[in-house]
Design brief:
Helices cover about 35% and strands about 15% of the residues. The protein is an alpha/beta fold and about 230 residues long.
């Protein structure tokens, strides 16, 4: 469906301005499944970047500090403009936290099915998260907090999510009521101007023509509302 949709070829939408868009993968995923979205952004005349974080099965705070910040720095330096972040699922939560920490470097954040209001997901995902948490503790020991990878963690990654997104960072929350993996009610801000419903499944949002059209519009809006520096 994506490959036959007009948006896939940029029809009816203005080209980008060459600004950077950093893509952040979801839980237990890598940048690889975001290739289609990366290629589309490139054709739309944005400058897309993969996160570079590798497998998203690590302490999110460490992922931001060790890898994502470096990618944002590189994108900012190479384009000379604030960057846009797009994150899927857990990647959306990571993108939000990074943006809250760096509002002078991030123009906008778009989350796709990201339960940033609480970890309400399918029980099998919760079991996998507990396994990952145990692996993180074994790997880092005192290098991470005891409650790492839980809603009780108090690291900078989580504390930034508890604060409101800085006004100069434009927020977009995309969700689907037929997600089946996360509870859509935890993927919205509560502001109808920022929350956008689309049809589809959790993973399918990454390949959903409706989502691509929405991304094109919101990136254009961010370009108009937030001056590049």
């Amino acid at each position: 469906m994506l490959h036959i949709a007009p948006i896939y070829y940029g029809l009816g939408y203005p080209p980008g301005d060459g600004s950077a868009v950093v893509l952040v993968p979801g839980f237990l995923a890598t940048d690889v499944y975001l290739v289609e979205l990366w290629a589309w952004l490139y054709r739309m005349e944005y400058k897309p970047y993969f996160s570079g974080i590798g497998l998203n099965a690590e302490c999110p705070n460490l992922l931001i500090r060790r890898t994502l910040n470096a990618t944002i720095d590189r994108a900012r330096a190479e384009t000379g403009r604030k960057v846009h972040l797009i994150g899927h699922s857990l990647g959306g939560i990571i993108a939000m936290s990074a943006a809250a920490q760096r509002p002078d470097d991030v123009a906008s954040v778009i989350t796709l099915a990201a339960p940033f209001r609480g970890p309400v997901v399918h029980p099998n995902i919760l079991r996998l998260a507990e396994y990952v948490r145990s692996a993180i503790q074994a790997r880092h020991g005192d290098g991470v907090l005891p409650s790492c990878y839980t809603g009780r963690c108090s690291c900078e990654f989580v504390s930034c999510l508890n604060d409101k997104m800085p006004r100069r960072v434009m927020m977009t929350a995309v969700y689907s009521r037929t997600d089946a993996i996360v509870d859509w009610r935890y993927c919205v801000t509560g502001d109808p101007d920022l929350d956008f419903e689309v049809p589809g499944t959790h993973v399918g949002l990454v390949f959903n023509p409706s989502v691509y059209a929405l991304i094109a519009k919101r990136l254009e809006n961010a370009r108009e509302q937030i001056p590049a520096t």
